[in-house]
């Protein structure tokens, strides 16, 4: 298991907020004022992370790419050479299915990719590697769902990637080998800006096909000011994208550099 996993879990909520609360308890006698600051910061952070209204506000800042209009779908084959759908984790050993399955977000992306493929006739590339080194790959799971549940074949499987950057690097290699330089990229709306950047840095033009928008009216009582477990999960994903968009240009270099 990569060491970056541990750092990521500790430096992003809820890990960092729980560490602040633990630090507050440890400092309660040594440095009461600092302990109080850590406690308030951790508690307020947990509260804000649990609010649907914060999901809505943050998503509006992160989700920069508009949705494709349905009227555009039929013309996609004239503008691109393939549909690339990015993996999003997997659920392990689901007894209902007799094995691993794509995660909820991955299924949302796959469903949209299938709809676009059926309308446009474009071939699909699924991208996603192994889950902590254990087969099957996310790409393979996605291809199985596309075939068995949506009746759509997958032409390419990119099974080596572990990050969004690697999604782009390894997919670009396969696409260029097939003479394709422009794709329809299917991923979550909050993930699209970082994904587009990665693919374009690797020489692949992108038509954005985002799905799963969170920056829409939350429809909750009191306009989303009541804490909710789902909101905490969504805010975590959004914060991951904010950090990712800031860090990726510092860490990764263009294939053309």
UniProtKB/TrEMBL annotation:
Any GO BP annotation: Gram-negative-bacterium-type cell wall biogenesis
Read off the CDD domains from this record: YdcF-like
Alphabetized UniProt keyword annotations? Membrane, Transmembrane, Transmembrane helix
Q: Which residues cross the membrane?
A: 6-27, 34-55
Q: Which InterPro entries match?
A: Cell_Envelope_Assoc, DUF218, Rossmann-like_a/b/a_fold
- Ranges for the DUF218 domain? 82-244
**Name this polypeptide is given:** YdcF family protein
Species this chain originates from: Stutzerimonas kunmingensis
């Amino acid at each position: 298991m990569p060491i970056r996993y541990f750092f990521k879990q500790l430096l992003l909520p809820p890990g960092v907020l729980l560490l602040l609360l633990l630090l507050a308890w440890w400092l309660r006698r040594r440095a009461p004022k600092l302990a109080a600051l850590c406690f308030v910061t951790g508690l307020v952070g947990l509260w804000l992370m649990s609010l649907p209204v914060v999901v809505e506000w943050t998503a509006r800042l992160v989700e920069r790419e508009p949705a494709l209009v349905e009227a555009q779908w039929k013309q996609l084959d004239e503008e691109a050479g393939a549909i690339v759908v990015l993996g999003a984790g997997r659920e392990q050993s689901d007894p209902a299915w007799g094995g691993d399955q794509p995660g909820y977000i991955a299924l949302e992306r796959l469903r949209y990719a299938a709809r676009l493929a059926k309308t446009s006739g474009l071939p699909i590339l699924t991208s996603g590697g192994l889950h902590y080194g254990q087969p099957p790959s996310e790409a393979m799971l996605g291809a199985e769902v596309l075939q068995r549940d949506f009746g759509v074949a997958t032409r390419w499987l990119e099974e080596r990637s572990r990050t969004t950057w690697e999604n782009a690097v390894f997919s670009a290699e396969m696409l260029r080998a097939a003479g394709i330089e422009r794709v329809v990229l299917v991923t979550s709306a909050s993930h699209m800006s970082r994904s587009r950047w990665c693919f374009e840095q690797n020489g692949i033009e992108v038509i954005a096909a985002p799905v799963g928008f969170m920056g829409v009216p939350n429809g909750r009582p009191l306009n989303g000011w009541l804490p909710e477990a789902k909101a905490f999960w969504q805010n975590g994903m959004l914060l991951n994208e904010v950090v990712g968009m800031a860090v990726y240009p510092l860490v990764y270099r263009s294939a053309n550099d």
